[in-house]
Amino acid sequence: MSDVTVKVPFGTKCLDAALCFPASVTDVHTAVVLTHGAGGDMNFKHLVSLAHALAAHGFLCLRFTCKGLNLGYRVKAYRAVWDYLKSLQKFTVKHIIVGGRSMGCRAAAALARQLSDESQDAVQGVICLSFPLHPPGQTHAHRQRSEDLRGLPEDTPVLCVSGTEDNMCDKVLFEGMIKEMKGQVEVFWLKGGNHGLTVKGRSEDSVLDEVNLHVITWMSKQGE
């Protein structure tokens, strides 16, 4: 497995990114793009752990840093990363799944919706880690926050991983929103998990292993 730092052109600047891929480079056909939430960067432990797990199971993972807090700006940056991935000559990527953590997965869902309007098979799925359905204590924002997820076409599968104690994702509201989605949605509720997907009384590594296993299992189903 290799983890290589790269620079992704974005307007007049570049975005910091990292490509993580298995040793058998020629056999990689599916790529996952990941980005962080409102805080942190591409080296956030959860993203690095998931990227390594994906590479260990034969997938390419490109994670990137974009610190802007404006969602529109984030989506433009995500689009630049998607374009970069499509242009890579070293890999024969046929399937791209976009995802992220918190605000990062909102940007992923927005990009997937935008791309689906342009081309039917631009994105093969979306991974949402701790989707921020609403700010803490402001559940009224859930309709606006979930608009892009609800707007995804029926041929875009979605995986959501959220903690049962996440103060930015009311479980009842979230499950109601999922019923409105057109495509196939799988939800894994991490028992006792907060918005950072940490669980009281459990080691961080054991939680990451559990989350990674769910993502890998879901990824494997997408190729069937």
TrEMBL record:
Gene3D superfamilies from the UniProt entry: alpha/beta hydrolase
Domain KANL3/Tex30 alpha/beta hydrolase-like, residue spans: 30-210
Name of this chain's protein: KANL3/Tex30 alpha/beta hydrolase-like domain-containing protein
UniProt xrefs under InterPro entries: AB_hydrolase_fold, KANL3/Tex30_Abhydrolase, NSL3/Tex30
Signal peptide limits: none
